[in-house]
Amino acid sequence: MSWTWFHKLGSPKWFFQFASRWSLGVFLSGVVLLLIGLVWGLAFAPEDYQQGNSFRIIYIHVPAAILAQSCYLGLGVAGFVFLVWQMKMAPIFIKSVAPLGALVALIALVSGAIWGKPTWGTWWVWDARLTSVLVLFLLYMGVIAIQNSLEDKILADKAVAVIGVVGLINLPIIKYSVEWWNTLHQPATFKLTEKPAMPMEMWLPLLISSLGLYLFIAGLAMLRMQTEVLNRERRSSWVKEEVLKNGI
Amino acid sequence: MHSSISLNISNLWIERGERYLCKDMSFSLSGGDICKINGENGAGKSTLLKIIVGILSPLEGTVYYNGEDVSIHRDLLHQDVLYLGHNSAIKSVFSVAENLRWYFPNASDEAIAYALSVVSLSGYEETPSSQLSAGQKRRITLARLWLTDKPLWLLDEPFTALDVQGVSSLEKRMRDHISNGGLIILTTHQDIDASLNVKEINLTL
Amino acid sequence: MTYFSFTKGELLTLLRRKQDTMNALIFFLMVVILFPLGVSPSPEFLSVAAGGIIWCAASLAILMSVEGMFKEDFNDGCLEQWLVSGLSLPVLILLKVSIHWLIVIVPLLIMAPILAQMLFLPMDIFYVLLQTLILGTPALFLIGTIGSALTVSLRHGAVLMLLIIIPFYLPVIIFSTGAIRAAQSGMLYDGQIAILAAISLASLVVSPIMSAISIKASVS
Ligand SMILES: Nc1ncnc2c1ncn2[C@@H]1O[C@H](COP(=O)(O)OP(=O)(O)O)[C@@H](O)[C@H]1O
Ligand SMILES: [Mg+2]
């Protein structure tokens, strides 16, 4: 197997040129898909026979919750890659993605609370998924906090990578423990997003909005990473050429 | 007598806080040499020592100790090195003698008493280090030079806390060390006894 | 420096700085006392909540005592000497945490029966609490060490450290209190105990490595 893609990905210059070509397209197709998925899900998909219209919030909640997890997974993998191969792009990825991950986790929390009100009658229930997302949100806050607190940039990069790897190992344990804890405390009547045998008209818009949110966040992440690459490599000759050629 | 040792610095680039401290520096040293790193305040003398000993990494370039790349075979270097940095590395909960025992658990009482006498700390063996001045702590650190059998010494401003007599004892100790085949790299603002045949490295950027 | 002189030195430091350990233990006691005073002193509430109360208090006390673990070594330059000593940094860290654990856990276990009485925890459940404390607290120390190593260069790193470490404490707290709860309702709790032991073992492998990376990056 050829490893050139791996080395290319590790080069800020290569990434910058790749991202300048793709980021806007990815972002825009994300917006379009997200809109299609949401409009379809919120306005046209059939009502749930048990929960009525309130279930429609899953078209926001589920993609956000999944993405919050995927972003953290990405963070952990990037941390590992940085600690093992010192790949330059890895800390740039972590720094750019962490706030986005926190944002989607927050969206998942808020949408979960909005869903909770008509379903459970309260804004917050210690539901397994909601609790996991809350913990995930706190994990993101930790990553962001340490990134911002450490003045030494080299140390900050190492620190978030360490937290990311420790988080990667812990994520399944935390998730499992929260689920186990949840069954211990409340056999939930309604679980957020437990839909056995969802009909096609229901899950297709869900799939589309999930994909849309993925691309949307990926596009944003690429844009943020581009800025970060420029900032870190501002003294290198290729950045100067780039800026001279295309402006900022 | 130490077996022959060598230290090669090859194409070293150092960057600190977004500033280059040296570009493409190379030099070689071997047992019997004393090397003095020159440079103004903030030129990167301490940084260069830390890079040689592996606490910091260079931007580019390699340090070879006895022909082995130090970034890969760090242990080989660390078995042989005595590094005295800016901080005295003295524990304030320990007494003076306990501090030296922490580094040299097998040293005899006499050896410790002698090392302390050279740095004019005789009679302080049982004093808690927290009751000593910064200069005195620094001298405990220097006492390690009379207890060690490591061949490679990296000394960051070793003379600062010493009086005239202390300086001449240290110079004598260094002379003994290199005549036994040891290698010393140090930074200092002081002029060193000319008979020591000091090699100089300049950091000017 | 040898592993032995290092260990001896750490032990000596902790014994001479008894007050630091005492503070953590008194803090532990105070958090426990907050619950009867702040929530309810009724035996019905306390006997059910005792496991959780003791575990939360222990977690906070352990965080407190682990937080400054490397601060002094960092400030006086000893960490640099660890790095160039030719000894393995992860092993040195592991030795240091183990000693810390021993020095804190022994008095904590001695205090535990008294607290169990004060919180109306039945004797048979108390033994389960002891098991969870012995098997679970190593994980808390080891995970806390990573946080301590990450924030060693910060003057005011304590709050930041709590922020990043507490989420990682959740599984340990959940399974410990889960085991106690299971025992209280007469169910088997071997599974939870096994998980606790597994988490501690995993931390034993991961924590020294991660802490060593953090310390190397912090010393510069
Ligand atoms: N922790 C640090 N972070 C960033 N830059 C540093 C740090 N320590 C020192 N420097 C920079 O490195 C340069 C060299 O420092 P140093 O090696 O201590 O100089 P010297 O020992 O020659 O006086 C200084 O100009 C300083 O600005
Ligand atoms: Mg200096």
Automatic annotation (TrEMBL), chain A:
Task: State a single Pfam family of this protein.
Answer: Cytochrom_C_asm
Q: Which keywords fit this entry according to its UniProt record?
A: Cell inner membrane, Cell membrane, Cytochrome c-type biogenesis, Membrane, Transmembrane, Transmembrane helix, Transport
Q: Which residues form the Cytochrome c assembly protein domain?
A: 5-185
Its placement in the membrane is given as: Multi-pass membrane protein
Q: What subcellular compartments does it reside in?
A: Cell inner membrane; Membrane
The family this protein is said to belong to: Belongs to the CcmC/CycZ/HelC family.
Write the protein's name.
Answer: Heme exporter protein C
To which species is this protein native? Marinomonas phaeophyticola
UniProtKB/TrEMBL annotation, chain B:
Alphabetized UniProt keyword annotations: ATP-binding, Cytochrome c-type biogenesis, Membrane, Nucleotide-binding, Translocase, Transport
- All residue ranges annotated as the ABC transporter domain in the record: 7-204
Give the Pfam families listed for this entry.
ABC_tran
* Presence of the UniProt keyword Cytoplasm in the record: no
Q: Which PANTHER family match?
A: ABC TRANSPORTER I FAMILY MEMBER 1
What PROSITE patterns would the database entry show?
ABC_TRANSPORTER_1, ABC_TRANSPORTER_2
- Gene from which this protein is expressed: ccmA
What is the designated name of this protein? Answer: Cytochrome c biogenesis heme-transporting ATPase CcmA
- Top-level taxonomic group: Bacteria
From TrEMBL, chain C:
**Which InterPro entries does the entry mention?**
Cyt_c_biogenesis_CcmB, Cyt_c_CcmB_bac
**Residue ranges crossing the lipid bilayer per the database entry:** 21-39, 45-66, 78-95, 101-121, 128-152, 158-181, 193-215
For this UniProt record, the keywords arranged alphabetically read as follows: Cell inner membrane, Cell membrane, Cytochrome c-type biogenesis, Membrane, Transmembrane, Transmembrane helix, Transport
Q: Where would you find this protein in the cell? A: Cell inner membrane
User: How is the protein disposed in the membrane?
Assistant: Multi-pass membrane protein
Report the superkingdom from the record. Bacteria
One Pfam match, given by its short name, reads CcmB
Q: Which family does it belong to?
A: Belongs to the CcmB/CycW/HelB family.
Q: What does this protein do?
A: Required for the export of heme to the periplasm for the biogenesis of c-type cytochromes.
What protein is this chain from? Heme exporter protein B
Q: Per the UniProt entry, what species is this protein from, by scientific name?
A: Marinomonas phaeophyticola
